[in-house]
Predict the structure.
Amino acid sequence: MTSGDHKYLPYGRQFLDEDDIQAVSDVLRGDWLTTGPTVAAFEDKFRTVAGSNHVVSCSSGTAALHMAYMALGLCPGDRVIVPSISFIATANGALYCGADVLFTDVDPDSGMMRAQDVLDLIDGLTPDELASVVAITPVNLAGEVAEIEAINSIARQNGWKMIIDSCHAVGSRYGDGRGVSRTAGDCHFADMEVFSFHPVKTIAMGEGGAVTTNDAALYDKLCLLRNHGMERNPDKWTGRGAGKAQPWYYEMQHLGYNYRQSDIHSALGLSQLKKLPAFIEKRQKLVAKYDALLTDMSPHIRPITSAPGHGAVRHLYVVLIDFGALGTTREDFVAALSARNIGTQVHYIPIYAHPYYRDKYGELSRPGAEEYYARTLSLPLHVSLTEDDVTYVIEQIADVL
């Protein structure tokens, strides 16, 4: 088989089987399509996966971020610290609330915010700017886990709240400073964590997201915010229906949104969660295959750094490529792989470089983020991929170069 005859390998895609299709069909034949018992069942199952006390599912990872920021009460004049490398929603969610963001630099070899990056940022802030910071949002990029324990320590010292963007990290594990194995989503070092179930993520719901928390008050607030800010519990009414038996009554207590998850999406998500252990095993095998085959190409092509002892579940397989040393450009390299039916993507353009943020905050540059962006490329990684496919990808990379 020639390279042009090989099936197309996208950088990511969902894996669905007949069990998933049947689960959705069962809901379509039932009484509930919107937010019903299957949503509750998905939240209960995901709570055990994440290890948190509470889960609030919603319509997307972006909605989860927005809800988390709203639950903190962000408003104009507040600032949130975010990494320069992430999907734009990490920063956008704070701006939806009228707040501003401050961009830290990142590790040029992992793309993630480090504790030192946070310290470097705040060293350059004026007293008024520092006083306006109310929260920080590190990102577990590609399924790897950031220095969340050390970053949390800085946050607590400064009185900040902490949200972890774990949209890439469903099922990932990490070790804390005491050697305890923890799960992304357990909120041991955060007030809230957010997740995405977009089709290219570890599990797919079509579109979907969730917020985990151990704080009962935040949980109650999140539940209101995803459903127009409406309270239906008579014990919590404060308006004209308080103390009355009015079965039709509800009251809007916050400005919320329609960010509800549906039973249709939750049926797919619940079925996918049953496969999560198998998905994790497959992804880790594929990552190990990539790592082994790339050894001979180092240092010009190598995977992003992975913290020792972490049990990352990689959503993306990201490599760092010294295009200059290899005598090519990323544009030409991507085009050459595409001609061989290999899909790639860049995760991510520094958020501050987008025209909207450039116009809002002026020209910014973070050396680590710029170095990471200049070298990064995501290769195919998804459950439908085989180890032979990984071999093909690496063989074609070697041939192109």
Summary: The longest strand covers residues 54-58.
